[in-house]
Amino acid sequence: MKDRDFKVRALGEIAIRCRDKKAMTKFYDEVIGLEHLAGDVDDRVTFFKIAEGFGGHTSVLALFHPDEITGTDTSEHQLPQTGAGSSLHHIALSLPYEEQQAVMDWYEQIGQDYRVQLFDWIGWRGIFTRDPDGNTVELVAYDPEWTAT
User: Fold this and answer.
1) What digits encode the pLDDT tens for the residues 14-72?
2) What's the gap between Cα 50 and its chain centre?
3) Element (DSSP H or E) covering residue 6
4) Rounded to whole angstroms, what are the CA distances from 9 to 88, 139, 142?
5) Which of 138, 137, 142 is nearest to 125 (CA)?
6) Is the pLDDT of residue 10 over 80?
7) I need a labelling partner for 39 at 20 to 30 A (CA). Which of 46, 62, 122, 138 fits?
8) Are the beta carbons of 124 and 143 closer than 8 angstroms?
9) What number of CA atoms fall less than 13 Å from residue 55's CA on the CB side?
């Protein structure tokens, strides 16, 4: 068998079909603070920059109007499953550990529900919330003072 001659280097894109694209766009802009990128396709797709990315491809979050994948008119029974009924478990976005307190302070200020979870086995701390469609969004950081036990 021939060796695999490639290695994935980064996440290129997270693409979500939204139940409520307007509310989702506002959440990722105003609550999470992602940078809105130019290049929206009418109001069918909105792009947010996550990070610089790799090899010239910016890491992005793309929010799609729910009928853009199938190209059909959306009716209630065609709306995407979200929350616990979705195959998407959660989205994790990284930031420095030192900024996590600012996240919690921000969420408190704007009344955004959240929970904190420590991952002692690897030294991560995640701050979890939900977007307007019910998807779990984690802002995760490595604790620089963590030591393996």
Assistant:
1) 999 888 899 999 999 999 999 998 766 667 899 999 999 888 899 999 998 876 454 44
2) 8
3) none
4) 22, 21, 19
5) 142
6) yes
7) 138
8) yes
9) 6
SS3 131: coil
Q: Give CA–CA dist 143/149, Å, rounded.
A: 14
Which of helix, strand or coil describes residue 45? strand
CB atoms within 10 A of CB 30: 10
Cα 148–chain centre separation:
28
- Structure tokens, 93: 């976005």
12 phi/psi in degrees, rounded to 5: -85, -45
Q: Give the separation between CA 31 and CA 143, rounded to whole angstroms.
A: 23
DSSP string, 58-117: EEEEEEE-TTTTT-S---GGGSPP-GGGSS---EEEE--GGGHHHHHHHHHHHT---EEE
